[in-house]
Amino acid sequence: MLSALSGKGLLIHHWDTDGICSAKLLLEHLSGKEIINKTPELGNYFLTENELEEYSKYDFVIITDMSFPENNILKLAENAKVMIFDHHLGKVIEKVYHHNPVIKGENPDKYPSASWIVNDFLGNKINLFALLGIVGDHEQKIKNNKDFYNKIIDFCNENNLKFEDLLKMVYLMDSNYKLGDKTTVEKAPHLLLSNGSASDILNNKIWNENLSKLNEEITKILEKPSDEISGIILKKINTPYNIISTITRKIAWETGKNTVVVNSGFFNNKDQIYMRSIKNAEPMIQRGKSLGFKCGGKKEVLGAIVPKNKTDSFVQEIIEFLR
């Protein structure tokens, strides 16, 4: 199917490790095609009008590890063949090729990352990049998924690696988007194509410097107390770094409690809201979309971008939902 694509192509991918690794696998497979890769404006789970206009000049568009609003997809499909490889919640978009087993009712535990879905679609053997996307999206929690954790450990044993090495690689790759460096995020899949060994990633000097800077900011934020409402952790932060998902994940996994984090420092006129829950997050994702917010996520995760004057009311709805 991919081999039949022709003309000028665009690959749009998420900015995190899963998106970068998915992009690397696709670019490798499409090496004979005329194709470039882009990530959306960091923090946006949608395409802006300027992006949609720019991306309308391509003959085919591949989207991976992003669940864009349907109107974004249909706009792209006016002029291009569109293919999606994803694992987030949403609805099937019938007018394009939409490969997402999770929204077709499959068990999400069997499809833990876009990188795994892409790698399986391409017919590749298990490799570092298919697994890094999984570790990136689940970190230590993947140990609860015995089937995939065993695959990861078997790969590590065969390649003289430890699970902690894979975690470190994830943190290094993610450091680029967390510092707001969109250009380096877009260069990362190509870097992995040319210098993509485990050692190359672990010893990347700039990425290691990035990680040290981020760890200082994350530690500072986590040291400040959070609020707790009816057993739900609510933390308000103000940082220019795109670390809200990291903060939420660390608090939720350390406490075992439903967690909501609000960052007022990333956008000028909007707030980031991130929720990790024990409950299925899909009803709140749909609620956010119905209110006109840019909203997405997975079964345990909600991410939203909300106008500042709507933040308090939406957070209150989330708290009530989690209760």
Descriptive keywords:
2 domains, globular, 46% helix, Diaminopimelate Epimerase, Chain A, domain 1, inorganic pyrophosphatase (n-terminal core), 13 helices, alpha/beta, 323 residues, five-stranded parallel beta sheet
Structure description:
- This protein folds into two domains: 2-202, inorganic pyrophosphatase (n-terminal core), CATH 3.90.1640.30; 224-322, Roll (Diaminopimelate Epimerase, Chain A, domain 1).
- Helices cover 46% and strands 18% of the residues.
- It has helices at 17-29, 49-55, 70-77, 114-122, 128-138, 146-158, 163-178, 182-194, 198-202, 205-223, 244-255, 282-290, 311-322, and strands at residues 8-13, 34-38, 60-64, 81-85, 97-99, 227-229, 232-237, 259-263, 270-276, 294-298, 301-307.
- It has a six-stranded mixed sheet with strand order 6-7-8-9-11-10, with helices on both faces. The protein has a five-stranded parallel sheet with strand order 2-1-3-4-5, with helices on both faces.
- The relative contact order is 0.10.
> What fold name goes in the CATH topology slot of the largest domain?
inorganic pyrophosphatase (n-terminal core)
Instruction: Give the class-level CATH name of the largest domain.
Output: Alpha Beta
Output the strand order for the largest sheet: 6-7-8-9-11-10
Average pLDDT, to the nearest integer?
94
User: What percent of residues adopt helix (DSSP H or I)?
Assistant: 40-55%
Tally of structural domains? 2
Structural class estimated from helices and strands:
alpha/beta
Large-scale geometry? globular
- Named at the architecture level, the CATH assignment of the largest domain is Alpha-Beta Complex
Please trace the helix and strand order, writing H or E for each element. Answer: EHEHEHEEHHHHHHHEEHEEHEEH
First-residue to last-residue Cα separation: 46 Å
